[in-house]
Write a structure and sequence with these properties.
It is a single chain. This protein has one domain. The strands form 3 sheets. It has a 4-stranded mixed β-sheet, with helices on one face. With 126 residues, it is an alpha+beta fold. The chain is built from 2 helices and 8 strands; from the N terminus they run αβαβββββββ. Helix content is 24%, strand content 41%. The longest helix has 19 residues. Strand 3 and strand 4 form a beta hairpin.
């Protein structure tokens, strides 16, 4: 818990510094990201966030809470299978593809659907 307190204190000190020194350029990053979040961590975050943005990418999931009119956000980032079920619904055969200096052999490609339940299904969702 001490490390958490130090982290939060550092954020406050940095914000105070930037506020009192408008001549200093702000850092480019505006996010605090928790990579590889577990389902439990995402559920805890969803409860704490109340309302948040859910972003489903092809293989990843983000739960993002904006702050400061969207200028900042905290996000949980995890493999999509942490919160969704990956279901192969079909396959298709893909012919060999030849590019200069590269050959992609013929292969079977899975056709996938993601079945995602609300993160907090038992509590009315988030």
């Amino acid at each position: 818990m001490e490390k958490r307190k130090q982290y939060i204190q550092g954020l406050r000190e940095m914000a105070d510094f930037l506020e009192s020194h408008p001549e200093v350029i702000c850092p480019c990053t505006n996010e605090l990201t928790i990579f590889g979040a577990s389902k439990e961590q995402i559920e805890i975050g969803a409860r704490a966030f109340g309302k948040a943005d859910k972003v489903y990418l092809s293989e990843h999931f983000q739960l993002r809470k904006p702050f400061g009119m969207g200028a900042w956000h905290i996000e949980f980032w995890s493999p999509r299978e942490v919160v969704c079920e990956r279901v192969v619904v079909d396959t298709e055969e893909v012919d060999e593809q030849v590019f200069p200096e590269q050959v992609i052999p013929a292969h079977t490609k899975e056709i996938v659907e993601w079945r995602c339940s609300p993160i907090l299904a038992t509590e009315g969702g988030s």
